[in-house]
């Protein structure tokens, strides 16, 4: 398997957005469940625990990372089934993420957005999100889960070479 990178960068008033999309032949409510219910997020990202609500923090386990660490994830906005915004802080800096869902004629587009303060590391970040979003696809359609080696380092040059376009 040789996945093709799909991410793009868009200039914003506050920095740059890294945007990746996936489409699903499913209602938005079903895709929403895949990105918010702990037993379903466990299939492609990791389970989470805690009292989820805007302004609160949950613990998420990264099942597909070495050591399968737990980390804190703050829920900044939760507007079912259209928008989930979360943030975290780790040794790599602050992470501000949004998942935006739009449904039309039984097809839902998931728009993943990472709000970036700097383009440093985008060559490493982009392949990781491609991997996770393809894990989400595999978890939904029953296809074999991809391996990270198919994404990194082969997609690194693509992401490192991206330049932001108008938003």
- In CATH terms, what is the fold-level topology? Alpha-D-Glucose-1,6-Bisphosphate, Chain A, domain 4
Main pleated sheet:
8 strands, antiparallel
| Shape designation | globular
| Global mean pLDDT | 95
Strand content: 35-45%
Order of helices and strands: EEHHEEEEEEHH
N- to C-terminal distance: 31 Å
Coarse structural class: alpha+beta
Task: Characterise the protein shown here.
Pfam families: AHSA1. Residues 25-137 form the Activator of Hsp90 ATPase homologue 1/2-like C-terminal domain. Belongs to the AHA1 family. InterPro entries: ASHA1/2-like_C, START-like_dom_sf. The protein is α+β, with helices and mostly antiparallel strands and 167 residues long. The chain has one domain: Alpha-D-Glucose-1,6-Bisphosphate, Chain A, domain 4. Helices cover 23% and strands 36% of the residues. The radius of gyration is 15 Å and the shape is globular. The mean pLDDT is 95.
Main attributes of the structure:
167 residues, 36% strand, eight-stranded antiparallel sheet, ASHA1/2-like_C, START-like_dom_sf
Describe the protein's topology.
Layout: E1 8-11, E2 16-24, H1 28-36, H2 38-41, E3 48-49, E4 57-61, E5 70-79, E6 83-90, E7 93-104, E8 107-116, H3 122-141, H4 156-160
Q: Quick summary of this structure?
A:
This protein is an alpha+beta fold and 167 residues long.
